[in-house]
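Protein in question filed below.

…
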Amino acid sequence: MPGPASRVEEIYRRVRTDILSGRHEPGSRLLTAALCERYEISSGMLREVLPRLAGEGLVVSEPQRGFRVTQVSVDDLRQLTEARVLVESVTLRQSIEHGDVGFESDLVAAHHTLARTAALDDSGAVNDSWLTAHAAFHHRLLAGSPNLRLRAIADSLRDATEVYRCWSGLLGDEPHRDIAGEHRRILEATLAREADLAVTELTEHIEHTTRVLLRLATARAGSATS
């Protein structure tokens, strides 16, 4: 049987995946009794999991009220995008400068997995396996940087963006966008050590996603008031 530490890690990953995939909707309360029943865990174990997710910006703690999934907003998304571009641009340049052959091999392997993983599942929802592969690719892209703080910040900001992606159903909404091509161009520029091009491609990739999310957010707001 798994020990307490490994069980906490398992539940952490399950709750995290459920938030990123939209099973716990943005802004929703994370009720202790319901979560304990759903994941078959104790309240003590849950108290170890939720602060970790709060540290990643996926949930927020409310005094005397417990935890809530981070709310989504247009202003937050714009600020999140600005922060991602700034942090990931610097970190990618460092990654290209310092990354060795092992970095290249890991990046190519991560891209191979991403390229061969279906973005949507049979129900048309964002595929959990794609989310994992997508996060792994972007993580490996910056893994050549020696600055662990920057890499951790980049991962956290990217996770927050995934909440918006899953909330909006982005992947199913963009049949004409070549996301695979965007990832390939980022990979090729990085492997060629063309830092300016790689940063340009990555910036466009991030900002394109935000433009679509903002369009969908506007459309949702319009339908809600009509």
